[in-house]
Design a protein that fits this description.
By secondary structure, the chain is of the alpha/beta class. It has a single domain, classed as Flavodoxin domain (Rossmann fold, 3-Layer(aba) Sandwich), CATH 3.40.50. Helices cover 39% and strands 19% of the residues. The protein contains 7 helices and 6 strands; from the N terminus they run βαβααββααβαβα. Strands 1, 2, 3, 4, 5 and 6 form a 6-stranded mixed β-sheet that branches. α1 links the parallel β1 and β2. α1 crosses α7. The longest helix is centred in the C-terminal third of the chain and has 16 residues. It is globular, with a radius of gyration of 16 Å. It starts with a strand and ends with a helix. The structure holds flavin mononucleotide. Flavin mononucleotide binds next to α1 and β3. The site of flavin mononucleotide has 19 residues, from α1 and β3.
C-alpha cells in the first residue's frame, strides 16, 4: 500500500515529528512504503488564484508541488501532521494545502475525482498544540477535512494533543506516542 505523509512542523525533531515517527514506525513494521514530504524544506509557492486550474485541473506554477501532486494521485493512505500555529495548521502545510486548489477544480468543477484504487483512500490527522484551548484543533481539523475530501479521501481519523509546547515534550505525554504508533497500524489495515 502506498502511504504519503506530510510533516507540517518546521522544527527538527519537534513534537509533531516525534509523533509522526511513531505512526511511520507502525506502518513500516507492517511492510508498507512511505513517501514523506516536509514542506518547510521544499520550494512551494503559495496559490496565486490565477484561475488557470479552473479550466485544466493543473497548476501552472513550476515548483516542488509537481512531486506532491503525483504522490497524492498514486497514494492510498495519507497522514497530515501539523503543530497548531495561531489557531490553525502551520503556514508551511497550509501553503501546500492551498495549492491543492488544482485538485479541487479537477474533482468538483471538471468532475474528475482521483480514482479510489484497490484499497480505497483513508487518512490520519495528527496535531500538537501548546495551549489548553481546543479551538486551534477545531480550525485545524476543518482545514484538514477540506484537504482530505479534495484529494478524494472520504474518511480520516484525528489524534490531537494539547498543552505540549517545548521541544520534545510529547515524550512526557502518557499515551501520545503509543496512540500514534497504533493509529499507523490501523491506517494500513485493509
Ligand atoms: C508561531 C507559533 C504559534 C503558535 N500558536 C499556537 C496556538 O494558537 N495554539 C496552540 O495550542 N499552540 C500554539 N503554538 C505552540 C505550538 O503548537 C507547540 O509548541 C507545538 O508543540 C509545536 O510543535 P512542533 O514541535 O512539532 O513544532 C504556537 C507556536 C508557534 C511557534
Amino acid at each position: 500500500m502506498k502511504v504519503v505523509a506530510f510533516l507540517g512542523s518546521p522544527r527538527q525533531e519537534g513534537n509533531t515529528e516525534l509523533l509522526l515517527n511513531e505512526t511511520l514506525k507502525g506502518i513500516e513494521e507492517e511492510g508498507h512504503e512511505v513517501t514523506l514530504f516536509r514542506p518547510s524544506q521544499m520550494n512551494i509557492s503559495p496559490c496565486l488564484n490565477c484561475g488557470e486550474c479552473e479550466e485544466t485541473g493543473e497548476c501552472i506554477i513550476d515548483d516542488d508541488m509537481a512531486e506532491v501532486y503525483r504522490a497524492i494521485k498514486e497514494g492510498e493512505r495519507f497522514i497530515l501532521a501539523s503543530p497548531i500555529f495561531f489557531f490553525g495548521l502551520s503556514a508551511q502545510i497550509k501553503t501546500l494545502i492551498d495549492r491543492c486548489q488544482a485538485l479541487w477544480c479537477e474533482k468538483y468543477l471538471l468532475k474528475r475525482p482521483i480514482p479510489e484504487g484497490a484499497y480505497g483512500r483513508r487518512g490520519l490527522l495528527l496535531m500538537v498544540g501548546g495551549m489548553k484551548r481546543e479551538i486551534g484543533f477545531e480550525c485545524g481539523n476543518a482545514t484538514a477535512t477540506a484537504f482530505f475530501r479534495t484529494i478524494n479521501v472520504p474518511e480520516h481519523e484525528t489524534l490531537y494533543y494539547k498543552e505540549v509546547d517545548s521541544k520534545g515534550a510529547i515524550r512526557e505525554h502518557p499515551t501520545a506516542l503509543k496512540d500514534a504508533y497504533e493509529a499507523g497500524k490501523r491506517l494500513v489495515k485493509y
